[in-house]
Design goal:
It is globular and about 80 Å long. The chain is of the alpha/beta class. The chain folds into three domains: about 200 residues, NAD(P)-binding Rossmann-like Domain (Rossmann fold); about 220 residues, Orthogonal Bundle (N-(1-d-carboxylethyl)-l-norvaline Dehydrogenase, domain 2), CATH 1.10.1040.50; about 100 residues, Alpha-Beta Complex (2-enoyl-CoA Hydratase, Chain A, domain 1), CATH 3.90.226. The protein contains 24 helices and 18 strands. Strands 3-2-1-4-5-6-7-8 form an eight-stranded mixed beta sheet.
Length: about 575
């Protein structure tokens, strides 16, 4: 399928719709953004003597939504000038315009009847062969296309973006029962190559992959938090960057996203999953239910698990919720022996192993939450995905985790973790025991410099598709392609007579080891190779020069050493420069 996408219509201009429109505008596509006509006049419109037929009234909903998005932070557009690529209108006067559009994306309210009514109208105007997709986060794809024509159903699928679309990498692609395979191939490629997404193929199951696993992890974690008596700040300290998760961790994330959103997904999952062995975990614990009933949804309502208090003198002070009394108190500064021990461990994988096996309250919490998550994920295959790597991809891209559940399980050791899990009452799916009985020790392996995953159906390891053109440094090193290294840099043979230089100091700062690595790599390339690539897979390419040694020399007034350091750095950078 070779369909050029020049014009996209987005139906629904809410938080998601307007941001999806902006993301398509970012890549040069012309966008038509439509929404409903208001049911009544605003006070200002009444003062002006306008009627519901006035053009500005009819487009008020869509124009207001788009303007709010253009003012939002973080910015939805790469450049404010790209807003000119978005044309607004309403679903009554302008829907017929979709006949000229290549792709129509529905992003209206999450109600099946409303979506079905809209698709009935869409079918009257769309051109045959045009793509129709829904951004639903949980309504079954097959129900939305019922009663539509064969051409509609063949060109219909789910394209679930995560908010905000410009920044969160995940795009879930969900085929309907009659979606033609070439459309799915196209959407997977387009999302990856043009929209800059991690596109993950999902089955048409409740909440698809990312929300099914991510929301389970959140609500299940809440049950553990309530049972173990942790506080809000304690949990956010334990569940943030220290384990490779977002800085907003658990409670701050729920306040930003909106507690109501998480609760609605959880409630819907409980209703939709009568045969899920862990269904009861979706029942809200008290520490969630009380806030939901009080409508303390977080930032959108002014209070949630955190609340910003303004004092009479104008000072602002952030307070946290006491999960026992449900009153607000000063933010605590939690301390755990496990976190103290992990401070000096830079490598996330080593840090996770230390934390999960640590004998204190933090270690107990990690074991309870990780083991339950591992068990749940093992039972979701083949229900939500036939391949385990898709679960890791979806959760990492959708929730900002550095390592997915199966990747984390590998880090902790599959065999030893299963033994500990089952000793604590967490029973894994039978296929995990089959993997271990066959003599395998991990869900992923490096074979010939390529990352492979354990395929349950064939009981063998297969290469992860989509990575054929990527150079993954960790996999090359695991395959024995390292040709030189010191404490701060490594040279890897990339193939085709090209070598790569990787930094691995703290924040990839440039000190003596990195300078030595740069000079060594350039010398090797000049002598024995055709090219050199300087790059790495860290969160930062480089935080710049390591000034600690410079400060030490300055304190000791070793000015000759300072001059030598500066000269070495300058000479090395000049050597890197392409002639």
């Amino acid at each position: 399928m070779n369909t050029p996408i020049k014009k996209v219509a987005v139906l629904g201009s809410g938080v998601m719709g307007s941001r999806i429109a902006c993301h398509f505008a970012n890549i040069g596509v012309q966008v038509l953004l439509l929404d409903i006509v208001p049911f009544e006049l605003s006070e200002e419109e009444q003062k002006k003597g306008w009627t519901l037929e006035h053009p500005q009234v009819r487009n008020r909903v869509v124009n207001t939504a788009l303007q709010n998005t253009l003012k939002a932070n973080p910015a939805a557009l790469y450049d404010k000038a790209y807003a000119s690529r978005i044309t607004t209108g309403n679903l009554e006067d302008d829907l017929a315009k979709i006949k000229d559009y290549d792709w129509v994306i529905e992003v209206v309210v999450e109600r099946l009847d409303i979506k079905q009514q809209l698709f009935e109208k869409v079918e009257k105007y769309r051109k045959p062969g045009s793509i129709i997709t829904s951004n639903t986060s949980g309504i079954p794809i097959h129900l939305m296309s019922e009663g539509r024509s064969a051409d509609f159903q063949e060109n219909f699928a789910g394209t679930h973006f995560f908010n905000p679309p410009r920044y969160l990498r995940l795009l879930e692609i969900i085929p309907g029962p009659k979606t033609k395979p070439e459309l799915i191939d196209f959407l997977m490629h387009y999302g990856d190559s043009f929209l800059g997404k991690e596109t993950v193929l999902c089955k048409d199951t409740p909440a698809f992959i990312a929300n099914r696993i991510g929301v389970y992890a959140i609500i299940s974690g809440m049950h553990a938090i309530e049972k173990m008596g942790f506080g809000v700040s304690e949990v956010d300290k334990l569940t943030g960057p220290v384990i490779g998760r977002a800085k907003s961790a658990t409670f701050r994330t729920m306040d930003v996203v909106g507690l109501d959103t998480t609760v609605n997904v959880s409630n819907n999952l409980y209703k939709a999953l009568p045969h899920d062995e862990s269904r009861d975990k979706f029942i809200l614990p008290k520490i969630v239910e009380v806030l939901y009933n009080n409508k303390w949804f977080g930032d959108k309502t002014g209070q949630g698990y955190f609340k910003m208090t303004r004092h009479p003198d104008g000072r602002k002070e952030l307070q946290e919720l006491d999960l026992k009394t449900f009153t607000y108190k000063d933010v605590e500064k939690p301390k755990f022996k496990a976190l103290e021990a992990a401070k000096e461990v830079e490598d996330l994988k080593k840090r996770l192993k230390l934390l999960v096996n640590f004998e204190d309250r933090a270690g107990e919490f990690y074991r309870a939450s990780f083991y339950d998550l591992f068990k749940y994920c093992s039972h979701r295959i083949p229900e939500i995905s036939d391949e385990l790597y898709r679960i890791d991809q979806a959760v990492c891209a959708g929730f900002g985790w550095e390592l997915g559940p199966f990747e984390t399980w590998d880090v902790l050791g599959v065999k030893e973790t299963v033994a500990k899990m089952e000793a604590s009452g967490e029973k894994v799916a039978p296929w995990v025991h089959e993997l271990l009985t066959a003599g395998h020790e991990s869900f992923y392996k490096i074979n010939n410099g390529k990352k492979t995953y354990y395929d349950i159906s064939s009981k063998s390891y297969k290469e992860i598709p989509g990575f054929e053109e990527f150079v993954i440094l960790d996999t090359l090193k695991a395959a024995g392609k390292k040709v030189w290294g010191n404490a701060g840099a490594t040279v890897v043979d990339l193939g085709d007579e090209v070598i790569g230089l990787e930094f691995h100091t703290k924040m990839n700062s440039m000190g003596a080891e990195v300078i030595e690595g740069i000079n060594t790599a350039i010398g090797m390339a000049e002598k024995s190779y055709k090219g050199l690539v300087i790059g790495n897979e860290g969160g930062n390419f480089s935080a710049g020069a390591n000034l600690a040694m410079l400060f030490m020399f300055a304190g000791d007034q070793e000015f000759d050493e300072i001059n030598l350091m500066i000269a070495q750095f300058q000479n090395t950078m000049m050597r890197v420069r392409i002639p």
